[in-house]
Amino acid sequence: MEPLNVWDYERLAAERLSVGAHGYYAGGADDEVTLRDNVEAFRRWRLRPRMLVDVATCTTATTVLGHDVSMPLLVAPVAFQRVAHPDGEVAMALAAKAAGTIMCLSTLSTSTPAEIAATEAPRWFQLYVFRDEGMTRDLIAQARSGGFGALVLTIDAPTRGNRERDVRTAFAIPEDLRIAAFGRGGMTPQQVFDEVSPSLTWHDLERLCSESGLPLLVKGVLTAEDAKLACEHGAHGVVVSNHGGRQLDGVSATIDVLEEVVEAVDGRIEVLVDGGVRRGTDVVKALALGARAVLAGRAPLWGLAVDGEAGARRVLELLRREILSALQLVGCSSPADVTRDRVTRAPAAR
Question: What gap in Å lies between CA 331 and CA 92, rounded to an integer?
Fold first, then answer.
């Protein structure tokens, strides 16, 4: 039977991947409290549908940073995708292209930016800043020459989170896989991790915004204070993100702090959110709380693991169908029509 939803794809992916590989993608930091809460938090919000609204011509299409997309869901950056499937990031890019949405390529990719550019998929580049400024400049140059539409600067990883699942399974990236963007032969994951700068500041963000020549979003914002600083230092957008629960355990679920960030930004730049998205209704809840769009990483990754490009494409399409259905049933004819009154906080359990 064809998988019906993201949960079905995750179960199938767990069967196809080694225990270590599945744990690497599925796991989080420490006790995985935030990892679980990212998903569970969506259930603490309830949709408020309005009736007798004409939704005969409902569309999921929208724009993000001026880019037309088929739905308010983008493919989040996920590292080392050839661990999940031999075709890796190239297959994911082709799936995103078929789905009419943007793929965000990880710095820790097993495919080069040029290989992704060759797919002609709409694409952004997720960026880490390194101790060696030349490494950072080279990545930005590859993104520019490869026609990437934006940079997504990850700011929540000055050091790696404590991921105990990987320790228990003794998981390691296969030796024949390299991070492809770093020259001939690439670099090993440990070499790259050792180079990530723990000294990144808001002044560096301002410099990158002025020098990169590309729109820049800041990924990893969880507070109003940092949202305001992102605006003040030149960011074109923020991504409310806790790194999928993989960095600091015990922080808030992203959907729970989304509205705080949106209010702080006050319309100056666009706000996106990731973490815990498994259903089209999750997307509509995020739109109601002020997100322009969501990014989903694990969901299409499970599709990739199950059936390569075709599997990732099917996951993106089933999510688009779920978004369309949720929009119609909540009484909105497009993502732009979703307003704050379409969602409410669920009563606390007694």
Answer: 32
Angle at alpha carbon of residue 209, lines to 207 and 213, rounded to 5°: 115
DSSP codes, 49-83: ---S---TT----EEETTEEESSSEEEPP-S-GGG
Q: Is 236 a catalytic residue?
A: no
Residue 350: predicted pLDDT: 62
Q: Is residue 227 part of a domain?
A: yes
**Residue 268: C-alpha distances to residues 73, 150, 261, 313 (Å):** 21, 17, 12, 33
Residue 106 lies in a domain: yes
Cβ contact 244:297 at 8 Å: yes
Tokens in use for 334? 């497009």
pLDDT digits (tens, 9 = 90+) for 185-239: 778 888 888 899 999 999 999 999 989 999 999 999 999 999 999 999 999 999 9
The secondary structure of residue 336, as a DSSP letter, is: G
Residue 208 falls inside a structural domain: yes
How high is the mean pLDDT of the chain?
A: 95
At 337, which amino acid appears? D
> Over the stretch 240-276, which tens digit does the pLDDT of each residue have?
999 999 999 999 999 999 999 999 999 999 999 999 9
CATH number at residue 280: 3.20.20.70
Assess if residue 168 is contained within a domain: yes
Domain residues for the domain of 34 are 6-333
Cα 76 from Cα 175, distance rounded (Å): 25
Catalytic residue (one of 22, 233, 236, 243): 243
Phi-psi region of 77 (alpha: psi -120 to 50; beta: other; left: phi over 0): beta
Give mean pLDDT, residues 109-116.
Answer: 95
Are 50 and 330 in contact by the 8 Å Cβ rule? The answer is yes
Q: What angle do CA 222, 276, 83 make, to 5 degrees?
A: 110
Number of domains present in the structure of the chain: 1
For the residues 133-156, what does the mean pLDDT come to? 96
Beta partners for 45? 345
